Amino acid sequence: MTDPRAALRARQGAGARYDAPEAPADALLRMRRGNAAVARLIDALPDSALSGQIAETIATLGYHARACTRLLAGQPMWESAAQRDAEQALGATLPPRALRALFAHTARHLDVDMRDLPGPAWSDLLPDGTATQTLPDRHARLLWRASLSLGGRARDMPALYREG
Questions:
Q1: Which residues contact 3 (CB under 8 A, 6 or more apart)?
Q2: How far apart, in whole angstroms, are the C-alpha atoms of residue 18 and residue 129?
Q3: The dihedral of CA 78, 83, 87, 89: what is its sign?
Q4: Residues with Cβ < 8 Å from 30, sequence gap 6 or more?
Q5: DSSP annotation of 16
Q6: Which of 48, 68, 149, 156 is 20 to 30 Å apart from 143, CA to CA?
């Protein structure tokens, strides 16, 4: 019997890219599933619902993903709390189509940056002093917790994010 992953890689060819073996596979899977769950919830909301607290939640998720890509690039997430707050407040004023695009684009960008991170970099420290290994779970926790504000159910989220 052939290994399904090996068969998939053979079908995808030499140009396909994969997570490094050193990457935290389980945490990346939780983050990717969180992105998919939140994307489904956002897509299910009518445009008229994408304002107020809902818009703030979506903007927070989008700009947090963008800040995580900055960390991976060796930069601080934000220059200051004021910059973070201003960025998220401005994002919450975006029209529905732009708000959906913000979430989708930043989620994809972070996923690609993590997928392309070289194996040894997964053991590095980030500019904020935390381990690179912890970043997918940090973002996943935010995604899954925010999903509840967007109409998600606690029973659908990974157990380790339901408390604390």
A1: none
A2: 26
A3: positive
A4: 136, 137, 140, 144, 158, 161
A5: -
A6: 48
What is the DSSP secondary structure assignment for residue 77, as one 8-state letter?
Answer: S
Residue 7 is predicted with a pLDDT of 82
Amino acid at 5: R
41: Cβ–Cβ under 8 A, 6 or more apart, which residues? Answer: 147, 150, 151, 152
Residue with tokens 């998919």: 36
- pLDDT score recorded for residue 11: 85
- The segments of the chain whose pLDDT lies below 70 read 1, 164
What are the residue ranges of helices labelled H in the chain?
4-12, 25-44, 52-72, 81-91, 96-115, 135-149
